[in-house]
Amino acid sequence: MQTIKVRKVDLLAKLKENRAEHRRIFEDALKGWKSQVTLALEQAVEDAKAGRKFRTEIDLPCPEDHTDDYDVVMGQVEWSIDEELTLSYHEFRQFVLDDWGWKPDFVASSTSYSSSSIKSTESKER
User: Fold this and answer.
1) Which three-class secondary structure string do you get for 6-66?
2) Which pLDDT belongs to residue 37?
3) Which domain does 83 fall in, by range?
4) What percentage of the chain carries pLDDT values higher than 90?
5) 114 contacts 32 by C-beta, under 8 angstroms
6) Total of domains in the chain
C-alpha cells in the first residue's frame, strides 16, 4: 500500500501522544545527562585540587530533542482544511508508528542516560 487516508482528528491525537512520549523520554534523559556531566566535572575538579591527573574534556553527548519535528507536523495537520488526509508509507511510519529517521540516534543517546527511556523503547518495540 503506497498511501492511506486517515481522519485528521485521529492523526492529530496520535501525533500528540507520540510527541508527549518523546518529550518525556528526552526530559528524563536530559536530567540523567546533567547528572553525569556534573559528576564528571566534580571528579575533574577534585582530581585537579588533589594534584592528580584530571580530564579537561568531558565527552558526554547531549540527548537529542526532536519535539519541534512533531510540532511542525501537528501544525500542518491543524492548518489543513481537509477532514481526511492522505499519508504516504513513509509519513505513516513517522507520524503514526513514530519511526522517524532520527529515531535510532535518539534512542541511543537517551538510553545512555535514562533507564526509564530504555524500558519505554523496549516496550514499544514488542
Assistant:
1) EEHHHHHHHHHHHHHHHHHHHHHHHHHHHHHHHHHHHHHHHHHHCCCCCCCCCCCCCCCCC
2) 95
3) 3-35+63-116
4) 83
5) yes
6) 1
Half-sphere exposure of 79 (CA within 13 A, CB side): 6
What is this structure's pTM? 0.84
pLDDT digits over 74-107, tens only? 999 999 999 999 999 999 999 999 999 999 999 9
Asked whether residue 53 is assigned to any structural domain, the reply reads: no
Number of Cβ atoms within 10 Å of the Cβ of 77: 18
118 has a pLDDT exceeding 90: no
Residue 29 C-alpha cell reads as: 534523559
Task: Please count the other Cβ atoms lying within 10 Å of the Cβ belonging to residue 94.
Answer: 21
